[in-house]
Design brief:
Layout: E1 3-10, H1 15-22, H2 31-34, H3 37-47, E2 51-56, E3 71-74, E4 78-79, E5 94-95, H4 98-110, E6 116-118, H5 125-134, E7 144-150, H6 160-175, E8 182-188, H7 205-217, H8 227-234, H9 241-249, E9 254-266, E10 269-279
Parallel strand pairs: 1-8, 2-7, 2-8, 3-6
Antiparallel strand pairs: 1-10, 3-7, 4-5, 9-10
Bound molecules: 3,4-dihydroxybenzoic acid and fe (iii) ion (FE).
Length: 289
């Protein structure tokens, strides 16, 4: 059985990549954000995961509005980045883990998640920025990766409950995987933000803080919200919270919060990072109803 060691939720704002490229981590605007990753780095140094399963959303690099799967799972040898037009450096590819990808795909389909399987898949800033936050250095590739893409872009969006159940199914599949790998689960995006329309710049601190608390202690409260309710409360891009909810679903053990940071704003976004440890020897979560 693979060992799910923990989960990390983090913002994926593209401007973070620009700050990294310019070495602005200690700049007064950026330091309250970047400093929060010191604790995460210490924990990753101690725990040294072998694989990261990353729930994220594509913003039009690999999938566009013409063909957009609700859930897509990477099954590639490696995942290439490409220019998305944000003016960010294109980073070298990330190694995949095809054996684990196919195990997850087989298990998900057997459990009635009719995902799209991708033997080629470009990864955008929602994948690359979190990876460079967790493992700084353009060429740092200390883990194999399995990207799992959730549609948060083209309506209708999957429900929070469905995303939580997707995470739970991934967690069960990892527990059944014959391997001694240490697995980190990552959920990217959010928290509240809206990039366009009448509410451009919208941020909802109270809702974000409630979400960060419930993700740790009672994630099923969030699964009671419809995706449209999340958009109303967190902004049209704040619905990237769905990736965090899937991440939390995959933590099948007893979860302990080790660290969190919430900082407004980074670009147009209420930025956040949350580090959760997963203790697999303890009580399983309540089953989703
Ligand atoms: C921003 C946030 C995002 O989640 C994204 O995908 C693009 C831009 C921003 O705040 O600038
Ligand atoms: Fe985004």
């Amino acid at each position: 059985m693979a060992n799910i060691i923990g989960g990390i939720g983090t913002t994926h704002v593209p401007a973070i990549g620009g700050a990294i490229a310019k070495g602005l981590q200690k700049d007064p605007y950026w330091s309250p954000f970047f400093n929060a990753f010191d604790k995460v780095h210490e924990w990753l140094d101690e725990t040294r995961p072998d694989v990261a399963v990353v729930f994220y959303n594509d913003h039009g690099l690999n999938f566009f509005l013409d063909k957009l799967p609700t859930f897509a799972v990477g099954a590639a040898q490696e995942y290439k980045h490409a220019d998305e037009g944000w003016g960010l450096p294109v980073v070298p590819p990330y190694p995949g883990d095809p054996a684990l990808s196919w195990h997850l795909i087989e298990s998900l389909v057997a459990n009635e998640f009719d995902i799209t399987m991708c033997q080629e898949m470009l990864v955008d800033h929602a994948f690359t920025i979190p990876m460079s936050l967790l493992w700084p250095g353009t060429n740092a590739r200390p883990v194999r990766t399995v990207p799992i893409c959730i549609n948060t872009v083209q309506h209708p969006l999957p429900s929070a409950e469905r995303c939580f159940k997707l995470g739970q199914a991934v967690g069960r599949a990892l527990n059944a995987y014959k391997s001694t790998d240490k697995v980190l689960i990552v959920g990217t995006g959010g928290l509240s933000h809206q990039l366009d329309g009448e509410r451009a710049g919208f941020i909802n601190k109270e809702f974000d803080q409630m979400c960060m608390d419930k993700i740790v202690h009672d994630p099923q409260v969030l699964t009671g919200l419809s995706s449209l309710e999340i958009i109303e409360k967190a902004g049209s891009q704040g619905v990237e919270l769905l990736n965090w909810i899937a991440m939390r679903g995959a933590l099948t053990g007893h979860v302990t919060k080790l660290h969190q940071n919430y900082h407004i704003p980074i670009s147009n976004t209420a930025s956040a990072v949350l580090l959760l440890e997963n203790n697999t020897s303890a009580v399983p979560l309540r089953k989703a109803s």
